[in-house]
Amino acid sequence: MAHPDTPEAPASSSAASDPDFSHFGLDPTILRALVEQGYTVPTPIQSKAIPVVIAGRDVMGAAQTGTGKTAGFTLPILQKLLPLANSSTSPARHPVRALMLMPTRELADQVADNVARYAKYTNLKSTVVFGGVDMKPQTAALRAGVELLIATPGRLLDHVEQKTLILSQVQILVLDEADRMLDMGFLPDLQRIINLLPKERQNLLFSATFSNDIKRLAQSFMRNPEIIEVARRNATAELVQQIVYSLPSEQKRAAVAHLIRELALKQVLVFSNTKIGTGRLARELKKEGINADAIHGDKSQKDRMIALEAFKQGETDVLVATDVAARGLDIVELPAVINYDLPYAPEDYVHRIGRTGRAGASGIAISLMAPEEERLLAEIEKLIKRPLERGSLTGFDGGRRERPPRPRDDDRQSSGGPQAAGQRAPRYASRSRGHHEVVDDFFLRPYEPSEKVDAVVSEDAAPHDAASIQKAPKRVAALLGGGKKS
Ligand code: AMP
């Protein structure tokens, strides 16, 4: 079945798009899996990356989830490893040859799922290891031998320490969503892992943005990488309507409920900057009769998966999430994204709105901006190089009186407007909150096994530099030997 999330519709795709996958020289076993997946046209990142990776070059790819990048790096990796594929049952014949590092468990799980599908008709084996779940099944899979290993950095190091994993045969390293890995403070873990790998290897790094930190990281371990960029769908997607409403922060909750009702939104992802804010907003929306749930780090891995699945299945209309909890989730065809808070990092805005308007469908990205967030908006506009449309919340009374859903054809002209709304006494004004709450620190930690982790394993803190956990994540220069020594 063709995936609806084909990143760029063929009609609008660049001239670089190829008619089909056949001319890459991919093995019939790989092509067979693609036919099964219903992939007929390579996405732009695939067109560009596949030949370069097959040629053995290091790659820095500017692409995010939803562009088809997973197949973009997995297909050529499979092709390169095929000569080593074998049907032996001896683990020694299946050493880890390709290591794919992911920032989050959800992304690791998703990528592993894709890798297994693409490798289905080959003799190459794959598995995934991430934290928050029992190590034993992972250990068993590793002991049986796999050529492709998908992992989050912390759990990978746990396995290295348990001596259930040897990385001396790794030929290809993939760092996926590298910008997010740095944001999450994974740099020390990454460095440790890179030091465990053979020097002679191919490196592929994917990142939604190429910040100076990413460039510095790349310089530290890549060899003359080929830079591959695909048009950033989210920054350029005309199909996504982007609109900002200014209003006092205490009216935001009511505004979210109002918008969801007014626009009859279903399958809307709402971003909050904080874990606390995420749970609170979901609860309050539920009280208003809106079918909402939250996904954040206080939930167990299992509960996060359940919440996500319910959202994907359309059983939940609204999923409130922090950036990292939502990061990399392959949620297709989202008609709307709401920024309950403007993100602190402008790049996160790009990530967030990249989830809408996929596969030629139109989407809307709504941002709610409190006066104290104007600076954040200015940074976003600078990054995307254009001003965002300012809107006024027609019919919104500032949360004084929430109405039940109503027909869409009524008084659209009346312009309550943000200022007008702001002048009314907000009913929900209470403690000041806004975006100064504690940042969702769960996601700033490199890796934290959940309470369910296998008791055999000593918890992660010591091996993974407990000190780094508390520190600000952006320490690339210092860790790479540059920057200020403090
Ligand atoms: P990714 O960016 O790798 O997470 O991929 C996003 C989605 O696009 C996934 O659900 C893939 O299954 C799908 N996809 C990737 N490549 C293609 C392709 N060439 N044609 C159709 N769907 C694709």
Structural class by sheet pairing and helices: alpha/beta
Total of helices = 19
Q: Roughly what fraction of the amino acids lie in strands?
A: 5-15%
CATH topology of the largest domain, by name, is Rossmann fold
The CA-CA distance between the termini, in Å, is 55 Å
Give the number of domains: 2
What is the residue-mean pLDDT, rounded to a whole number? 77
The CATH architecture of the largest domain can be given as: 3-Layer(aba) Sandwich
Please give the largest β-sheet.
7 strands, parallel
Determine the fraction of residues in helical runs and give it as a percent range: 25-40%
Q: Reading side by side through the largest sheet, how are the strands ordered?
A: 3-4-2-5-6-1-7
Bound molecules: adenosine monophosphate
The overall strand count is 14
The gyration radius over C-alpha positions equals 23 Å
CATH top level class name of the largest domain = Alpha Beta
Question: Could you write a compact summary of the structure shown?
Answer:
With 486 residues, the chain is an alpha/beta fold. It has 19 helices and 14 strands. The strands form two sheets. It has a seven-stranded parallel β-sheet with strand order 3-4-2-5-6-1-7, sandwiched between helices. It has a seven-stranded parallel β-sheet with strand order 10-11-9-12-13-8-14, with helices on both faces.
Account of the protein in words:
The protein has 486 residues and is α/β, with parallel strands linked by helices. The protein folds into two domains: 19-229, P-loop containing nucleotide triphosphate hydrolases (Rossmann fold); 240-391, P-loop containing nucleotide triphosphate hydrolases (Rossmann fold), CATH 3.40.50. The protein has 19 helices and 14 strands. The chain is elongated, with a radius of gyration of 23 Å. The protein starts with 27 loop residues before the first helix and ends in a 7-residue tail after the last helix. Residues 1-18 and 402-486 have low confidence and may be disordered. The structure holds adenosine monophosphate (AMP).
